Amino acid sequence: LIRNHVDVELSDYIKACADIGSEQFKVELISTAIAQQLQMAKAAIKCFKCRDLGHIRKQYPKGQRRNRKPSKPCPPCPKGFNWSNQCQLKYDKHGNLLPQQGNSKEVLESSAPQSNGTTLRHQYK
After folding, report:
1. Integer-rounded Cα radius of gyration of the chain
2. What is the pTM of this model?
3. Are 29 and 18 spatial neighbours (Cβ–Cβ below 8 Å)?
4. How far apart are CA 125 and CA 123, in angstroms?
5. How far apart are CA 84 and CA 42, in angstroms?
6. What does the pLDDT look like over 7-49, one tens digit per residue?
7. Are the C-beta atoms of 99 and 89 separated by less than 8 Å?
8. Max Cα separation, the chain?
């Protein structure tokens, strides 16, 4: 009779079962022994984020990692802790219009000079 002991190695289980049972039984027994050792090894893993045992930071669901708030307030925005690339503020604290972030679809200016010395200007809508 084989029992689950912490001090027994996988090779000991394999040697004990080498001459008994069918091939299917041996495969099931070896897979059970390997699964038990993997569970013990997994329990020893410690997460660097929350310091709990049994998982790592990469195994967190994607939604939990993405909903983090920034540690500092948004520089142009007095409203609080939001990412500056997601800031909806249109005017600064002095009432001046803030430049639009990202690629503007309304006006796209090329800085390459044309033959007549002006810059090329396209209107997209």
Report:
1. 31
2. 0.26
3. no
4. 7
5. 39
6. 777 788 777 777 777 888 878 888 888 888 887 776 677 777 7
7. no
8. 94
Task: Work out the angle at residue 104's Cα, subtended by the Cα atoms of residues 63 and 123, and round it to the nearest 5 degrees.
Answer: 145
Q: What are 55-114's pLDDT values in tens digits?
A: 777 776 555 555 567 777 777 676 777 777 777 777 777 778 877 666 655 555 555 555
Which of 30, 28, 27 is CA-nearest to residue 12? Answer: 30
Contacts of 81 (CB under 8 A, 6+ apart): 69, 70, 71, 72, 73, 74
**Distance (Å, whole) CA 49 – CA 44:** 15
User: Which amino acid is it at 52?
Assistant: D
For the record, the structure tokens of 119 come out as 């810059």
How far apart are alpha carbons 86 and 68 in whole angstroms?
13
Tokens for 27, please give them.
Answer: 């495969």
Amino acid identity, residue 122? H
